[in-house]
Design goal:
- The complex is a heterodimer of chains A (168) and B (78).
- Chain A contains six helices and four strands; from the N terminus they run βαββαβαααα.
- Mean pLDDT of chain A is 73; it is low at 114-168.
- In chain A, 45% of the residues lie in helices and 29% in strands.
- In chain A, a hairpin with a 2-residue loop joins strand 2 and strand 3.
- Chain B has 78 residues and is mainly alpha-helical.
- Chain B has a single domain (13-68), classed as Ribosomal protein S18 (30s Ribosomal Protein S18, Irregular), CATH 4.10.640.
- Chain B is 45% helix and 0% strand.
- The radius of gyration of chain B is 15 Å and the shape is globular.
- Classes of the chains: A alpha+beta (168), B mainly alpha (78).
- At the A-B interface, strand 2, strand 4, helix 4, helix 5 and helix 6 of A face helix 3 and helix 5 of B.
C-alpha cells in the first residue's frame, strides 16, 4: 500500500505590518516542503485583509493567505511546523483536508480571478453545475488536521451547544 | 381535541436550507455563517435555524473553525 497524495487547504493569518521579505521567506519554506513531498501547489494567494474578530497578540487586523496544494501527508505536518516556528508573524493557521473537486474548484476560481473580491458570491453561483452538493460538502470540511490553540475554547463551545441540543 | 390543538399551533414547516439550496458550508464564508449566530454570538439552536441534524452538526464545527481563524468572535466580550 503506497501512500497516496491528498489535497489540503491551508489558511494562515499574518501580522498586518509584516515585511515582504519575511513573508517571502515563509512562503518559500512552505513551497519547499510541498515540493519535497511530491506535491504541487494548486493555488497560493492573498485571500483578504480584514479586521480580526478579536485581538490576537494585540493585533486588530490581519492579512489572510490561502494555500491549496496536493501532496503527501507529511507535507502538511511540515508546513504546520514552519508556520508554528514563525508564530510571532503568523497569528493563526489551519490546514484542512479537502476533496479533489473542491481543490479543482478553487483552481478554477483563481483563473477567473476578477470576481472574487468578497467572501463568495461566485462559488455559490457555480455550485449547481457540480450537482451532488451533499457529498462534496461532507468531505470538504471533514477531517481537521490541526486546530491548535482553539482546542480549549472549542471544547467549551461543544458543551454549550450540546446542552442547547438537549433542550429540544 | 388533538386535531384542534394541531390547528392552533400550526406553523409553516421549516426545511433545511443546506439540503434544499445549492449552498456549501465553508468556514471562509463569513456572511453566510454570521446568519446562524445570535446577538451574543452563540450558535443558533436547531429549533431556530431550521436545519436538519446532519447540517446542524456541520454548522457547529464550521462556525468553530471560523472562530478560531478570528473571522467570527467567540463572545461579545472580546
Amino acid at each position: 500500500m503506497a501512500i497516496t497524495p491528498n489535497y489540503y487547504e491551508t489558511l494562515y493569518v499574518t501580522r498586518p505590518d509584516l515585511q515582504e521579505e519575511a513573508l517571502a521567506t515563509i512562503q518559500n519554506k512552505l513551497q519547499d516542503s510541498i515540493s519535497t513531498n511530491q506535491g504541487e501547489i494548486i493555488k497560493a494567494e492573498k485571500w483578504a485583509e480584514r479586521p480580526l474578530a478579536y485581538e490576537i497578540q494585540d493585533h486588530k487586523r490581519g492579512i489572510y493567505y490561502i494555500l491549496v496544494f496536493k501532496a503527501l501527508p507529511d507535507a502538511s505536518k511540515e508546513i504546520e511546523k514552519h508556520l508554528q516556528f514563525y508564530n510571532t508573524d503568523i497569528l493563526r493557521f489551519m490546514t484542512l483536508k479537502i476533496t479533489e473537486e473542491a481543490a479543482n474548484k478553487s483552481k478554477a476560481s483563481q483563473e477567473e480571478k476578477a470576481p472574487k473580491a468578497e467572501t463568495t458570491p461566485a462559488p455559490k453561483a457555480e455550485e449547481p453545475e457540480t450537482v451532488k452538493p451533499e457529498i462534496t460538502k461532507e468531505a470538504t470540511t471533514e477531517e481537521v488536521i490541526v486546530e491548535t490553540e482553539a482546542n480549549v475554547e472549542t471544547a467549551q463551545e461543544a458543551t454549550t451547544t450540546s446542552e442547547e441540543g438537549g433542550n429540544q | 381535541m388533538d386535531s384542534r390543538r394541531d390547528k392552533r399551533y400550526f406553523s409553516k414547516k421549516k426545511v433545511c436550507r443546506f439540503c434544499t439550496e445549492p449552498i456549501e458550508m465553508d468556514y471562509k464564508n463569513v456572511d453566510l455563517l454570521s446568519r446562524f449566530i445570535t446577538d451574543r454570538k452563540k450558535i443558533v439552536p436547531r429549533r431556530n435555524s431550521g436545519l436538519c441534524a446532519y447540517h446542524q452538526r456541520q454548522l457547529a464545527t464550521t462556525i468553530k473553525r471560523t472562530r478560531f481563524m478570528a473571522l467570527l468572535p467567540y463572545t461579545v466580550l472580546h
